[in-house]
Structure formats: structure tokens, C-alpha cells
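Chain A, query sequence.
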Amino acid sequence: MYSTVPRITIEIDGSALAAGVIQTIHEIRVKQMLSLPSQCEIIFQEAHENISAAALSKIGAAIHIQIGHQKQSLFFGQITAVEQHYTASIQPLIHIRAYDLLHRLRKHQPVRAHVKVDFYQLAEELTHDLGITVLEKESTPITPRLVQYRQSDLELLSELGKSHGLYFFLNKHDLRITSLDGYETGEHLTLGKNLFEARFSVNADTAIQSVSATGWNLQQTVAHAKDVQTVHKKTPAHEFIDTTRLGTDGQCNIVDYNCQNDDLAEIAAQSELDRRVAQQVTLWGVTEGNPNLTPGAAVQVSGIASPLEGRYVLTEICHSISPDKGFISEINTAAPTFTTAPAKTSRNATVGIVSQVNDPDNLGRIKVSLPTYNHIETDWLEVLIPGAGADKGQLILPDVDDTVLLLFVNEEPAQPIVLGGLYGEKPLPHAVVDEGIIQRFVTQTAGKQRFLLDDTENAISIETQNGHCISMTPAAIGITRNNGSSVTLTDDRMTIHAKTDLVIEAPGNSITIRGKRIDFEEA
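Chain A, predicted structure.
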């Protein structure tokens, strides 16, 4: 036995269980982790009359567990399951399972868009109807738009928090949000006193010195890149791991990350760096039972090898109360590895910049530089062309420095196809929207040779860079030179207007001028 069994108070829907019922408890286990609902399991030996029937009637009831005179509750939540276990050798066991109020977020999976998302504000919005209060609200980088479509509210909050390097834990009705650097509690653990067993791991597998995140804002086709070298999470021995001795430069790259601004790229890099460092030195241990040991809590550890002494942040705790071991708490400081919905990474497509167009085989292929893949250059790539076929097709190819969208065949970056070009923040060749409607189609070369279809005037025009124009409207068909000379055809007249000398000639052939009346006037 590690310690004595404390006095236990259990309330269900506000009514305390009788002492006789509590005496039938075989074990209480409370598992707490960052960014997940806390789980409680109470195992009863069915020595008390009608305990199984009573338990079955309590599904959905509120349950509150306190230890002695401790102000901090061991558990507060809602009963969600009852299990009856029968064997031939012992009395039946009744398992009552409960989760804290965060479990309700798993049951809500809407399809909706969140605009200008701040993490603390999102947490407040998602938990408000549960009567939960978000503590110590701060500001975080704004995500311009977030679409929730394959995630529960809990998964959405957990994933966004992880990308920001933020995690949460619910204490009754108070939601505390913290980074992996944790928050101060004043708790001390000393080996041989209240720390019964400890295992420390110093592991260089995740050792890095910096993280670079590169990604695209696909609404504007603007690349964002940030490099982070300062660690927010400090561990007692992380500075003793020398990455140069491991044959590595200590650099980690997050590529093709969907980020709308530099702040989000920076926070993604910072989050990854902090998680990697948090894994370098970890502690697992068994302590004297203490409900104040909660996820995110920082504790001071002593009585061990001096390089390992210091501050540790708890990420997972399993409190256990049983007759044979008393009240103990199993602690862990490893970075959370909870499983959520499949990560929404852009493995199928990315944006690139055209780097070469002079295909040596003259097949209309191009090479593309991939900024979010460390600027590697592709091989010669096929370009999607409308109507492509032997001696036909609309052959309009992207040029050097144009921005293009690539599709990765079988999610393989070495085998992309160019789907087309993107304007991003580059100016359009012509205004095409009029009164909220697309009214014009434009084809224009880099040299300003333009073909325009205009529905506002039912007009078609072909224009050259130096101002020559062929136009067709319901009123007239015209050919105009940049010096003002023109040929115009209307329903009742054809006009040839020359700003220069006009020569009509047919060398070696006859010229016929025929009309009802022919006038020659001096002008």
C-alpha cells in the first residue's frame, strides 16, 4: 500500500451516497488529459441491496467526487455508462463510468463557418451553453476563416488549440487554457516522500533547434514563411542535447501548411518546436494521491539526480483509490498525442511559381518552383489545356513567374499536373464584373494583345498593344488604326476614314466603281 484510503464523498444529482454504499467501492479511477474530457470509473462490489438497479437509473446524472476536506474536486461530470460484470468466483462488479462536461462537445458536429477566429473566443462560444467559464482569456492570432465540416466541437477546439500550441483542462465549470509551459501551482514532489516512483527519459529522437513553417494563403496566393528558434517550453535537461553530435542540423520544416498570414505560420512553427522540446525530457511517476495534480499544472521535482531536478508540467494524470494501494496519482509529462479527425493537409494539391517554359521537346510543358517545399523545382510538367489533342486545343500556357495550381497524382509531390493559373494579388487584365455580374470574358497576352467579349455592349473586340482594334457591336463593325484611320460598317453605311493619304490600286487588274450616284468632293 502506497498510502491510506481517504474519506470519500460522492454526490449524484446533489445527493450524497450513503456510507454503506461507499464501503462497497472496489476502486475509483479518474483519468485526466490535456484537451480531452476527464473520465471517471467507479467499481462497486454488489454487496449492497439493489445497487445495480440504482446505478442503471442514474445514467445522465451529475456526479461529484471529493476527497476529505480538499477544496479541489477529484471529479465533476456526468454518468454516461453502467456495466455489470458477472463471474463464477466473485460477487458481481458494477462499473459506473462518467465524463466531465467536455464530453458533450463530442456529440455536436455541425457544418458551419467560423469567421475571424480567436482561440479563446472559439472556446467560449463552443462551451457557453454548457455553463463553462473560460479563465484568463488572452488574444491569439486570428484565423480569418475556419470551416467545420468533419469534426465535432471537441475535435475542432483540440485541433485549433494544438496548432496554436494551446491545450485545455476543465475543472468543474472552469476551463483553463495553457501552453505546454503550464501554470504555477506551488506543488512539490520529492522522491521518497510524496513521490513514490519515478522514471525519467532523456531522448534525442525529437531534438531540434529550430522549426520553419511555410505555407500559402490560397485566397490571395501569397506564400508565408516563418522560422522559430526560441523555445517557450523549458525542461531541466534539454540544453544538454547537442544536435550537432547526432549528425543533424537541428532544423525541422513544416511544408505546404495552409496559413492565411505570417502570424499563423509563426505560431505553427512555435507549437511544433515546443512539442518537440517537451518530448526530450519526460517524467512518469507515482505520487501520493493529490487532486491538485491536474493537467497543465507545473510541479517542482527534487530528491533525484541534480541535472533532472526542476520544473515539470503535467499532461496526464490517473488518480486511483483502492483498498490495497490507497490513494495514489500516476503522472506523466509527455506531450499530448490525442487522436482527432484526419489532419487537413494539402497533400493533394499545392501552389507553385513557374520557373521554366522552354520545353526541350516542345511539348508545351513547364517547370515549377514549389515555395512551400523548400523551393524545389519540378520536372517538366503537363499543363491542363481545354480541347487538347493532335494539332488542336486552346494553347495558352503559363509564363515564367506566373502562379499556378498543381494536382499531386497519388498525393506524390514528384508527380504533379498543372491545373491552371491563379491571379492572387496580381492585377486583372480588365474589369469583368458589372453590377455584381460577370459581364466580360478576356484573353490577353503579357504583351497586351487582347481579345474581349463584352455582354454590357454585346461587343467583341480584338486589340493590339499599340492601339489597333477590330470591333463588332450590334450597331457597327469596325477596323480602327491607332492614328484614327478606320473602316466602319453599319446597317445603312460603310465608311472608310483615312488620316493619311489613301491609295486604291489594283496593279494589272481593273477597278470598277459602281453606284446610282457618285460624288467627288474636295475636303
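Residues 8-103 form a domain with the Phage tail proteins - horseshoe like beta roll fold fold (CATH 2.30.300.10). The chain has a mean pLDDT of 89.
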